[in-house]
Amino acid sequence: MSLDKLSSLARHELAQLNFPPANWVPPSSGPDGRPLLDALVVGGGMCGQTAAFALMREGVRNIRCLDREPRGREGPWATYARMEILRSPKHLTGPDLGVAALTYRAWHEAKYGLDHWEKLHKIARLDWAAYLLWVRDTAGIPVENDVEVVSLNLKKEFIEVKTTTSSFHAKKVVLALGREGSGALRWPEFETFNPDNRGARVFHSADDIDFKALKGKRVGILGAGSSAFDNAGEALEAGAAEVTMFARRPQLPQVNKSKWTAFAGFQHGYAALDDASRWRFYTYIFSEQVPPPYESVLRCEKNKGFSIRFSEGWKDIEEDDELRITTSKARYIFDAVIVCTGFDVNLMDRPEITTFRDVIDTWRSHISTEEAEKFPEEARFPYLGDAFQLQGKAGGLQRVHVFNWGCTLSHGALAGDIPGIEIGANRLAQGIARDLFLEDADLHYRKLLAHNEDELKPTQYFVSLSSRRPA
User: Fold this and answer.
1) What is the CA radius of gyration of the chain?
2) CA terminus-to-terminus distance, the chain
3) What is the pTM of this model?
4) Where in the chain is CATH 3.50.50.60?
5) Class of the 3-183+345-444 domain?
6) Euclidean distance between CA atoms 261 and 281, whole angstroms
7) Which alpha helices (H) appear in 340-440, and where do they start and end?
């Protein structure tokens, strides 16, 4: 089957599922007299487009999904994610929301054939990026590119949204901003180095890096997680003379504890646990850390120029005529360095929510002072409601839903990791649908009273409205 035929089949299956259903949310106007948007999804990557898809399946049609990047550059897949293949097993589903013809397997078989699928080890990263775009186009998910949300201003009955191109008002906002969606780039605390003033030889793993320029160069890598090995592999394959990786730990983590959580019981049940139990689960998982995929390690260790220095974190970076790294044991000179320390969770770093970030409830207020000091980043995670909505005393906070990595302590890894994305998107959309109905419950009741679709008109038992007697 060709991709064109698969697209036709998928659209037919969607039609069989009555997708998209009619929009049931009553229209309303904002303070400027223009129509009020029912839901805005900020971010058009995997989480954003799946959230929009789920909302449409619930009959919430008056939505927009915005992404600041051009088409094809949403999320990490075609940008700073530099692994050759995905970590997740190839059989996992998620962005398809249960539609068989929209699964990655269906797309892969249509593109490469069944035999190729059977022999496939894991999904190629760029194939996954292409697949997501195909799902978007096939399902008609309305992602608007090159539009950045600048600020959100909470009101009691709506949210004022300002973007780089316009301003409008929305009843609900979904923050689907990926790994950095609840914080920013994570940089270690160095003795003198300030990442805001870094030169052209110091990179973060999320930067747009010209690896070809590293040919013949000496490259230092800080970190020993997945992104560290992926960036090291890119540098080595681009011809770097040597790549030296530095890790604080004496050895690599050996077991991916989060992999254990990828089953329906945990994904459905975790959010229903009490706070102490949820805190216990994820502080343990985070503290164990995640080993890099063995494929990423093999990609690096087959190169003679690759080495790892364990138990040797960086104390400082100095940039002048030379680029010097000071560790706990020695000093090194490199031509370029890449800091692969991921993303921090700190709502204070998010520019979109400046006007209300100080009043957002976090996990800090739900644990002891001792636990907050022991796990400071975990304590900064937002404490979310049952549909990923923010909590706090400020009016309107629950109109904002966090569908990114920041949801993990409250809901588990349902917004970012492929295994949980379907459960997460459906939970999010169903919660938003519930809230929108409750907001207009009186209006819906009036519509119920006015409903008069004559079922028996073709029969001899039909009675006109004016002649009907009370039961």
Assistant:
1) 25
2) 58
3) 0.93
4) 3-183+345-444, 187-254+291-341
5) alpha beta
6) 10
7) 369-374, 376-379, 408-411, 421-439
Residue owning tokens 């399946």: 57
pLDDT of residue 81: 87
For the chain, give me the number of helices (H) and strands (E)? 14, 17
Confidence of residue 307 (pLDDT cuts 50, 70, 90): very high
- Which tokens belong to 28? 């309303």
Does residue 89 have a cis peptide bond before it, meaning omega lies within 30 degrees of 0? no
What tokens appear for 385 in the block? 């409601």
Instruction: Determine how β-strand 63-66 pairs with β-strand 37-42.
Output: parallel
CA contacts within 13 A on the Cβ side of 308:
18
Tens digits of residue pLDDT in 324-338: 999 999 999 999 999
Q: Which fold has domain 187-254+291-341?
A: FAD/NAD(P)-binding domain (3.50.50)
> Which residues fall within 8 angstroms of residue 463, CB to CB, at 6 or more apart?
456
Interval 221-265: pLDDT, tens: 999 999 999 999 999 999 999 999 999 999 999 999 999 999 999
Longest Cα pair distance anywhere in the chain, in angstroms?
Answer: 97
Pull the structure tokens for residue 447: 């519509």
State both tokens at 46: 């995997």
The CA distance from 67 to 92, in Å, is: 25
Q: State how far the Cα of 326 lies from the Cα of 332, in Å rounded to an integer.
A: 7
Looking at residue 383, its amino acid is Y
